[in-house]
Amino acid sequence: MKALLDLIVGDPQADRVVPPTGITARLTVFVSAVMAFLAIIALALSLSTGRVADRWADELAQAATLRLPADPELASSHLIKALEVLETTPGVASARALSDEEQQELLAPWFGDDLPLETLPIPQLVEIIAEDVSYDVEGLRARLSAEIPGAVLDDHANWRDPLLAAAGRVRLIGWFVILLIGASVAAMITLAAHASLAANAQVIRVLRLVGARDVYIARAFVRRYTLRAGLGAIAGVVLGLIVLQVLPDGGGFFAEVGFEGAGWIWPVVMPLLAAITGFFATRAAAFARLREQT
Amino acid sequence: MIELDNVSYGHNGSALFSQLSLTLAPGSFQFLTGPSGAGKTTLLRLCYADLQAQRGKVRLFGQDATTLDRDGVAMARRRIGVVHQDCQFLDHLSVAENIALPLTVADRVSEAAGNLKELLAWVGLGAQSGRLPPELSGGERQRAALARAVIMSPEVIIADEPTGNVDWEMSQRLLGLLVELNRMGKTVLIATHDLTMIRSLKSDVDARVLRLKDGQLTTAGAVL
């Protein structure tokens, strides 16, 4: 903690031994801000995708649809049998037959609003809502087939599994992007630190000749780049959060993009991570460079 | 204090000097003379571990220089004040800050306040303390370099052509300061090609004059 405080507060006298670097300093802050902005947007998209996918998957997992054969003569008895089976199945919270209006609404996108449902052999749909501890899908499927030949139980697994897989990949890509951004920040700071150390070769030589230890010289550079990376990241995170706030809210996915609950830890730790990256990248660059000099 | 034992050094395969031995005894005053290119500066750099001997041993305060790590070299340099030929300064710092630099890098800044004022007055730079090094004349730069070399009260002072860029009066003043330091018990080694300057100190100090020529170090006279 003391080392961290020393790093932030610094030693004004020690800081002055290395001349200000102008454009390198500004570029480091700028690049760190841009990277933090991109990281925060990528994180928000990744976390939001995960959240939306989880919610959809939960909703799909909770609900199932039973399709009864489209036989006008046996429709009522099939429905009664089906509801009896469902009511006696452990794990089924509720089951209800969809009304003609609801079925018409479901078909409307394909056949229009004026479909004469009563004149067509349309299968009856039953909506099943599961309890938290779900039912035995295969067992229920077998019982329904025995009681009502031709009944089809759709537990939405065919929809849910690809959705979960896609969401998982999007999340993975999000984290990979963040890793790349972190690596880019480290590479950029390493380059900037090397450039700064090379530009100050004469200063370093004088410092070595008057008895400065490597750790003293490195500290002056490390502190600068750590603070620049951290401050740039703060600016980038703030900008990213503003952009997330002003995203168009059309009630679709964009309305979901952002941070929620524990996810808010990321905008808070992002500048810290950038500073830590800056610290280690500069420290490694400084000691490598100093070892090359007498 | 500093001992070179059968030291060899050369550039690009050609030997600058070989099997050279030199001992800087505590409190001694020595001049190192020789023609340009003889290796005077190289020899001095070996004395403060700015170069490593290619053969032989360099001992700094009893320690083999080759066994010193980078921190060890830094700590040894705090015991050796060096006045470089080209008076290297940090141009963005004031003269006072440059002179106090050895204390700053040793985290002994608190000692600077009292010592610095006294030291600036001693080298006659009290009025120039706030100026930047590029604004100083050649003589002022040499005096600032000398002040920086002694601010840590080092045991050894090594000066490379300290009077190279100054007039006669200023060179006498600088040498007077070095003699004063020697009387205070400091070991002094000065590289110079100016024999007139050496002769001018004859009555002031017991000094050994070493001559480096053709890779050999010889004693020109035990006492001037």
Mean pLDDT over the full residue set of chain A: 84
Distance between the termini of chain B: 23 Å
CATH top level assignment of the largest domain in chain B:
Alpha Beta
| Assembly form of the protein | heterodimer
- Mean pLDDT over all positions of chain B: 86
Number of domains of chain A: 2
Keywords:
heterodimer; A: 294 residues; alpha+beta; 2 domains; 4 strands; rod-shaped; B: 224 residues; alpha/beta; Rossmann fold; four-stranded antiparallel sheet; 8 helices; 10 strands; 32% helix
Task: Give a written overview of the molecule.
The complex is a heterodimer of chains A (294) and B (224). With 294 residues, chain A is α+β, with helices and mostly antiparallel strands. Chain A has helices spanning 2-9, 12-16, 23-62, 75-87, 100-111, 137-147, 157-199, 201-209, 214-245, 265-292; strands at 63-68, 92-97, 124-130, 152-154. Chain A has two domains: 2-57 and 167-292, no CATH class; 70-150. Chain A is built from ten helices and four strands, in the order H-H-H-E-H-E-H-E-H-E-H-H-H-H. Chain B is α/β, with parallel strands linked by helices. Chain B has two domains: 2-79 and 154-221, P-loop containing nucleotide triphosphate hydrolases (Rossmann fold, 3-Layer(aba) Sandwich), CATH 3.40.50.300; 87-146, no CATH class. Chain B has helices at 40-47, 70-77, 95-99, 101-105, 112-122, 138-150, 168-183, 195-200; strands at residues 2-11, 14-24, 29-33, 55-60, 63-64, 80-83, 156-160, 187-191, 208-213, 216-221. A six-stranded mixed sheet of chain B has the order 6-7-8-3-9-10, with helices on both faces. The longest helix of chain B has 16 residues, at 168-183. Chain B is globular. The mean pLDDT of chain B is 86. The A-B interface holds A 13-14, 16-17, 19-20, 202-203, 205-216, 290-291, 294 and B 48, 50-51, 70-71, 74-75, 77-78, 82, 84, 88-90, 92-93, 97, 101-102, 104-107, 109, 148, 152.
